[in-house]
Amino acid sequence: MQTLFSRWLETAITVLTGEGVVPAHRGKIDGRLLSAVRQLERQPLASPVSETTLARSVGLSVSQLNRLFLRQFGVSSRGYFDRRRHRHALAALEESSRGAKEIASDLGFSSAPHFSAWFRRKQGVPPREFRRGRAG
Predict the structure, then answer these.
(1) Which of 86, 97, 128, 129 has its CA 20 to 30 A from that of 64?
(2) Is residue 1 predicted with pLDDT exceeding 80?
(3) Other C-beta atoms lying within 10 Å of the C-beta of residue 76
(4) pLDDT in tens, 67-77
């Protein structure tokens, strides 16, 4: 199981690197970081991430956990989860006809306008314009 996860993580790093996200550190990955990544990958997208709970579950302080995330991925644990939500939002907008309100709900946003503002900060355009650009 650990070998499969390591292969998956290497693939994820390759994909992120292809998108311009370059890991700040390569080499042996700390087991506590791997455990935290596993938890973040299983975390429902609509549920908020508690960095305190995550750090405690892997035996680290929040600052130690985020230091490991920053060294390996260039973002905090919360930033890592946020990237996962962003990838899901992009895929949902590209591959489905579901409305922004439904997608917002899936991702745990309290409203479609809140989702739209978040998406615009991430992508540079609101969801509707992003989808229109993909359809043309």
Answers:
(1) 86
(2) no
(3) 18
(4) 999 999 899 99
Please work out, in degrees rounded to the nearest 5, the angle formed at the alpha carbon of residue 109 by the alpha carbons of 131 and 127: 10
* Strands (DSSP E) found in the chain: none
Distances (CA, A) of 71 to 19, 22, 104, 123: 18, 11, 31, 24
List pLDDT tens digits, range 37-58: 999 999 999 999 999 999 999 9
Enter the tokens of residue 118: 């978040």
Short-list 122, 108, 16, 120, CA closest to 69? 16
